[in-house]
Amino acid sequence: MLVDLARIEVSAGKGGAGCISFRREKFVPRGGPDGGNGGRGGSVVLRVDPHVRTLLDCREQHRYRARPGRAGSGNNRTGRDGEDLEIRVPPGTVVRDADTGETLADLVRPGQRFVAARGGRGGRGNAVFATSTNQTPRRADPGEPGESRRLELELKLIADVGLVGPPNAGKSTLLSRISRARPRIAPYPFTTLEPHLGIVRLDDERAFVAADLPGLIEGAHEGRGLGLRFLRHVERTRVLVLMADASSPSPAADLAAVRRELEAYSAALARKPAVVVLTKSDLLAPEARAGAAAAAGAPEARVISAHTGEGVRELLEALWTMLPAPSPAADDEDEDHDER
């Protein structure tokens, strides 16, 4: 089950209290102050782990509290810092403030970190307050409280190519043909209830990730069907494959409906590079296949059959040429970068 939304509460640890202490040694009857500072409270950190696939753990455990810092002690000993609490999240997690809706971080790179709640500073011991006029200060600071906030985590799957279309357009069949993914396939609508990812390998050096999304119906951007719940996963794709069943009563109407829903959900989504594909050409009469694209009102469409493999290789080569090359600067970034 793909869990792509979760609300959590995070509380960082309080800083340890400073210590009031004076030296008490033999032959030193009036030793000066030696109270140490308190330790820093532990922070709550979100860290991207590529082995985590969903936000299920965050939904099951929605309260996270880091450890406090230890108090300082005599002999100028600083208290131990509280241990940071690390929460593992999948790549593609968007972090928002649950109260204001402000986007705080977009975690996409393996190892990327975001400090969600910073631990409080430790209090100062009385040794810090010693001056020439006050050589025996009896003052120490308490530790500062750690930050607390409520967060909303939203997972947007990261894929190069998104397969989008109405129910029963053959998206799952195509994904199972071109990758090792095995989504459920059946001859009725909404067989796919959650996104599926598959790695498509053209050869030893060329590969990309494709995502099979649940079918879109009219009004999906308003919450009808499963569209609103999963359209967010298309936002990160770099190329869209708009699919329609070539044997349906009106492939042109199906494609027009898909385009309308994408544009209504996000104008940026509608501007993504896209290729139009008519599927299930094996169900058409041989003489009708050549003119299927023109009959559907999409002369640029590719006509394929995931069942027989007709046109599939050519489609994959075309998709590869449409994928923008990754930025070298992005590859050189430090994967263990802390965000705030």
Walkthrough of the structure:
Its cofactor is Mg(2+). The protein is α/β, with parallel strands linked by helices and 340 residues long. It folds into 2 domains: 155 residues, Spo0b-associated Gtp-binding Protein, Chain: A; 164 residues, Rossmann fold (3-Layer(aba) Sandwich). Helix content is 17%, strand content 22%. It has 9 helices and 15 strands. A 6-stranded mixed β-sheet has the order 10-11-9-12-13-14, sandwiched between helices. Strand 5 and strand 6 form a beta hairpin. The two termini are 31 Å apart. The relative contact order is 0.14.
The strand order across the widest sheet is 10-11-9-12-13-14
Main CATH class of the largest domain = Alpha Beta
* CATH homologous superfamily identity of the largest domain: P-loop containing nucleotide triphosphate hydrolases
Runs with pLDDT <50, length 5+? 219-225, 327-337
Overall CATH architecture of the largest domain: 3-Layer(aba) Sandwich
In whole angstroms, the N-to-C terminal distance is: 31 Å
Radius of gyration: 29 Å
- Secondary-structure element order, as H and E? EEHEEEEEEEHEEHEHHEHHEHHE
> Major sheet: size, sense and barrel closure?
6 strands, mixed
Count of folded domains: 2
How many β-strands, per DSSP? Answer: 15
Q: Which geometry do the CA atoms define?
A: rod-shaped
Instruction: Report the mean per-residue pLDDT as an integer.
Output: 84
Strand content: 15-25%
- Structural category is alpha/beta
CATH topology title of the largest domain? Rossmann fold
Number of helices: 9
Q: What level of helicity do the residues show? A: 10-25%
Family: Belongs to the TRAFAC class OBG-HflX-like GTPase superfamily. OBG GTPase family.
Keywords: Cytoplasm, GTP-binding, Hydrolase, Magnesium, Metal-binding, Nucleotide-binding
Binding site for GTP: 165-172, 190-194, 212-215, 279-282, 305-307
GO cellular component, one term: cytoplasm
